[in-house]
């Protein structure tokens, strides 16, 4: 089957990571797979998206988008879909669905909703309205978690299938813990013997990176690594305590995952969080708020620790508990790696999507 993942974005985040991983997983399991990235040229992080897409092991096309809705970009995408004889185009979020769906097309079109990540009620309402437009343009709608599916069901008549994300095992060349810690410590002048907490995500309000800094202030004995870029970068730089290390955008997160004692999330909203899945696959326990689809991924007390939404003190307490107990970290980390292999492996994920593509029309 000839399938394409379709993105429309100005940076590289969770949805983009999912699309790239799915394109490669499909190719590894028998599909003729490619990816089309409609890149919003005005966005500050557009180069990061282009770099990641061009590094894929499957064919990828970059299509520039120069305005809010770009008819030329849509025409270029339609031409590419026809010339590549694509049978199913899988759009990731509503923008890509509007470009890839609509009438007068030969391919089947699907859309995955990755979550509702607006920090305000107004923004959330707009996102729901745009999601309705995307759903109307495609044949089938997917969501990465049950909470997202319930929210989306308010604005579309189409049935919504829940398909959680997946994550691959760490690559064979992933660095060992001691090697990764030594390299990061040298590069940033940090004591490799101190406890390390990793925070990975876009620096946007819904991810609440300033809450990670609150955890850093509550745990001065720990080093908190902040990996990500976005509109809150300046605010993070101004508020960062001395034990918070800002890495900016990181293309290769393997050394950070290998070196971390704990991976921390502080989000106000999540779908099926890729950072948590990636940490679990690498045997690193996750501390996170119990928001959105997080409780379906992180099993509280077994593969990580969950806190009430917005309770930064509880997040800090959970981190403190794990940093002080090496045996608990190891137990949760082993369980997390086992759970990632059992429930979030890329093989079954790819085959489930292929079945959905075949029944999308």
How would you describe what is shown here?
With 361 residues, the protein is an alpha/beta fold. It has two domains: 2-166 and 345-358, 3-Layer(aba) Sandwich (Rossmann fold); 177-343, Rossmann fold (3-Layer(aba) Sandwich), CATH 3.40.50.2000. Helices cover 44% and strands 19% of the residues. The protein has helices at residues 14-28, 46-54, 71-83, 94-100, 121-136, 146-152, 177-188, 209-218, 233-239, 254-259, 274-281, 294-297, 312-324, 326-343, 346-358, and strands at residues 2-9, 32-40, 60-65, 88-92, 108-113, 140-143, 160-162, 196-200, 223-227, 244-248, 262-264, 286-289, 304-307. The strands form two sheets. A seven-stranded parallel sheet has the order 3-2-1-4-5-6-7, sandwiched between helices. Helix 8 links the parallel strand 8 and strand 9. It is globular.
Q: What's the gist of this structure?
A:
Helices cover 44% and strands 19% of the residues. The chain has helices at 14-28, 46-54, 71-83, 94-100, 121-136, 146-152, 177-188, 209-218, 233-239, 254-259, 274-281, 294-297, 312-324, 326-343, 346-358, and strands at 2-9, 32-40, 60-65, 88-92, 108-113, 140-143, 160-162, 196-200, 223-227, 244-248, 262-264, 286-289, 304-307.
